[in-house]
Amino acid sequence: MVFLILAAQYEKWTLPFSVITAIPFAAFGAILMVLLRGMENNIYFQISLLVLTGLAAKNAILIVEFAVQLRKTGLNRRDAAIEAARLRFRPIVMTSMAFILGCLPLALSTGAGAASRQSIGTGVVGGMLAATFIATFFVPMFYRVIDRIGSHEHDILGSHEKPEKNA
106: which residues sit within 8 A by CB, 6+ positions away? Predict the structure, then answer.
């Protein structure tokens, strides 16, 4: 459903893929953090993966949306992607760090029922760290590549149209 909404928003079928590319970085960070803490893959950790999917996509949407707007103003793909990442980096880091710091008490909790809170907190903290500091650098590159593929596909489809005859 999210893919279809993004496709409608960007008016292209290819650009939502550049948003989706941020999700594996979040999953990698979550899995790595859970393994480093010696925890297991349980239902609570899987809930944190679901949360991370939305949050990692939100950060990528900020970059891709801004790059699309910059492309409409006339910038080339490379400059639009770099400028979008540069301008959106600070807001992404600030909101992500606020979320990560808010989840630290979950990851470090003790007492009755702490295992479930630790699983959710550890997964979210690890995933958001990876999504923030790794995906923020890769999403602009993925945007550039996927946008080039999408426009090439459009050129190919457009070249098969029959030329109009002058009457």
Answer: 117, 118, 120, 121, 122, 124, 125
